[in-house]
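Section 5: illustrative case.
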């Protein structure tokens, strides 16, 4: 991780834990906003104005948090407005780097970086913390606007005014309360829950996380049993995007590496149907790269010391 703007050589890819061995996620550091006219963000955040070709997303296809921003860029038809670069899925001893993995960018053309942490120290030379993806970068100012995917999703959903497609609103006012409730459940049990299972350092912490995951999957499966297309009914919302990015990685990565193996998503007919529905939205399938997902997760040395990548399954094998 970065300590006062410098890469700390003692960095360990294993994540931090509380006294009971529970995985603890760090908070994001850069939290500015983008609004159509540059006026303050929804909670008074300092904001820059929406402009075509000014902003850039740095993502990893392996990463569910980054992938949700990539999905929303597609859903809001912002592909020609916001450029993207993709890092190598295999974490290096200096964190994310540009590299030669098929589908990744071999090098960075924005600041000539080799590693994502350079964007962090370029923005704040005293920054401390993990250099995570996604990163929303301002090419004009040469700084990170925001590195919290939950914020970036909202920025892309409503911060780009006429530059974005109005046909999808992931946070319609009428559903906002339900979205927030579901988001909270999804985050604790599923989005972060799989990491809590995977990075648990005690049997207790693993079982606690695993139990919550499968309880949540049962709830979601039941919710979809009335034939609805999406989790809150006929409208695609932010909650669907959040659920999708974790569910689509589940059978290929989490079942094996994170030991969330009580069942697979393929064993849930409604959840499998939900994944198919979302994959059919134009452009979404291209945001899912199972080769990156498998290579990335299985490169986490603490969980898989020899770095072997399991044979299956890809989306086709999962019937998706
Ligand atoms: N809260 C952040 C979390 C992002 C995150 O944890 N990304 C992971 C990849 S999936 C990462 O970059 N990890 C590198 C590290 O922790 O050093 C967000 O949602 O944007």
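Designed sequence:
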């Amino acid at each position: 991780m970065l300590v006062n703007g410098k890469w700390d050589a003692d960095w360990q890819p294993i994540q931090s834990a509380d006294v009971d061995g529970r995985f603890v996620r760090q908070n994001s550091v850069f939290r500015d906003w983008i609004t159509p006219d540059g006026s303050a963000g929804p909670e008074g955040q300092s904001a820059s104005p929406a402009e075509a070709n000014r902003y850039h997303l740095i993502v990893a296809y392996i990463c569910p948090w980054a992938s949700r921003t990539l999905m929303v860029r597609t859903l809001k038809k912002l592909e020609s407005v916001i450029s993207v670069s993709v890092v190598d899925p295999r974490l290096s001893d200096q964190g994310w780097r540009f590299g030669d993995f098929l589908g990744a960018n071999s090098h960075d053309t924005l600041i000539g970086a080799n590693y994502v942490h350079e964007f962090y120290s370029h923005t704040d030379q005293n920054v401390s913390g993990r250099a995570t993806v996604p990163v929303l970068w301002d090419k004009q100012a040469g700084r990170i606007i925001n590195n919290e995917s939950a914020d970036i999703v909202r920025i892309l959903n409503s911060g780009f005014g006429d530059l974005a497609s109005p046909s999808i609103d992931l946070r319609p006012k009428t559903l906002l309360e339900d979205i927030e409730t579901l988001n909270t459940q999804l985050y604790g049990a599923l989005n972060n829950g799989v990491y809590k299972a995977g990075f648990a350092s005690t049997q207790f912490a693993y079982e606690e996380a695993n139990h919550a995951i499968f309880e949540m999957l049962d709830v979601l499966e039941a919710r979809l049993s009335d034939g609805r297309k999406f989790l809150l009914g006929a409208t695609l919302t932010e909650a669907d995007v959040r659920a999708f990015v974790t569910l689509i990685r589940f059978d290929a990565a989490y079942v094996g590496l994170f030991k969330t193996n009580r069942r697979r998503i393929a064993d849930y007919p409604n959840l499998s149907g939900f994944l198919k529905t979302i994959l059919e939205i134009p452009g979404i399938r291209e945001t899912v790269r199972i080769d990156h997902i498998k290579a990335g997760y299985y490169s986490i040395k603490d969980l898989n010391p020899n770095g072997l990548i399991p044979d299956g399954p890809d989306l086709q094998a999962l019937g998706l």
